[in-house]
């Protein structure tokens, strides 16, 4: 499968496993899982055909490891705007985590901190380089440092998704460093 096809399938999965499952007539279970055969059939019924083998290749080769397969089921690892509970356990974060954004959002972040913005959680990266790549998707990137150790001491809970993205409900501005 060529890279363009892989990207198209990955974007289709993201849209329907994270945001609009009902658009193609699938229902995610409470933890975000759906039967692979049901997903493939629903996609085909809505004009986007892919094989189970293509789906498995996309899951296996996705550089961001966005999807998980468990037996005959698939789900997105995080980033949902639909109501799911990924049942991720609370985890002890490293001392610092990072968030990628763009300059135009800094004033709001300084005032309100980091908010999930229509998602279930704020996404944090384990390293500055990943945060820069995330921010670069929307313009000139800025990587913010998050004092995760201080947040944890203050009672905030962190969860770690299967693909290494740290999730937290909110990052108050006092735990952010805007410049090194």
UniProtKB/TrEMBL annotation:
<protein>
    <recommendedName>
        <fullName>Probable RNA 2'-phosphotransferase</fullName>
        <ecNumber>2.7.1.-</ecNumber>
    </recommendedName>
</protein>
<dbReference type="InterPro" id="IPR002745">
    <property type="entry name" value="Ptrans_KptA/Tpt1"/>
</dbReference>
<keyword id="KW-0808">Transferase</keyword>
<dbReference type="InterPro" id="IPR042081">
    <property type="entry name" value="RNA_2'-PTrans_C"/>
</dbReference>
<dbReference type="Pfam" id="PF01885">
    <property type="entry name" value="PTS_2-RNA"/>
</dbReference>
<comment type="function">
    <text>Removes the 2'-phosphate from RNA via an intermediate in which the phosphate is ADP-ribosylated by NAD followed by a presumed transesterification to release the RNA and generate ADP-ribose 1''-2''-cyclic phosphate (APPR&gt;P). May function as an ADP-ribosylase.</text>
</comment>
<dbReference type="InterPro" id="IPR022928">
    <property type="entry name" value="RNA_2'-PTrans_KptA"/>
</dbReference>
<keyword id="KW-0520">NAD</keyword>
<comment type="similarity">
    <text>Belongs to the KptA/TPT1 family.</text>
</comment>
<dbReference type="InterPro" id="IPR042080">
    <property type="entry name" value="RNA_2'-PTrans_N"/>
</dbReference>
<dbReference type="GO" id="GO:0016740">
    <property type="term" value="F:transferase activity"/>
</dbReference>
């Amino acid at each position: 499968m060529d890279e363009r096809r892989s990207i198209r399938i990955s974007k289709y999965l993201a849209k329907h496993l994270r945001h609009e499952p009902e658009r193609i007539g699938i229902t995610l279970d409470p933890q975000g899982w759906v039967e692979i055969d049901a997903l493939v059939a629903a996609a085909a019924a809505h004009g986007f055909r892919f094989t189970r083998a293509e789906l498995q290749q996309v899951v296996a080769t996705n550089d961001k490891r966005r999807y998980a397969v468990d037996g005959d089921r698939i789900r997105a690892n995080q980033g949902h705007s639909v109501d799911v509970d990924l049942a991720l356990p609370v985890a002890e974060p490293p001392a610092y985590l990072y968030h990628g954004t763009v300059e135009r959002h800094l004033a709001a972040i300084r005032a309100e901190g980091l908010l999930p913005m229509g998602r279930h959680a704020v996404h944090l990266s384990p390293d500055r380089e990943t945060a820069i790549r995330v921010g670069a998707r929307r313009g000139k990137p800025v990587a913010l440092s998050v004092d995760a150790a201080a947040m944890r001491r203050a009672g905030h809970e962190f969860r770690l998704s299967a693909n290494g993205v740290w999730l937290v409900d909110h990052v108050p501005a006092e735990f952010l460093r805007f410049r090194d």
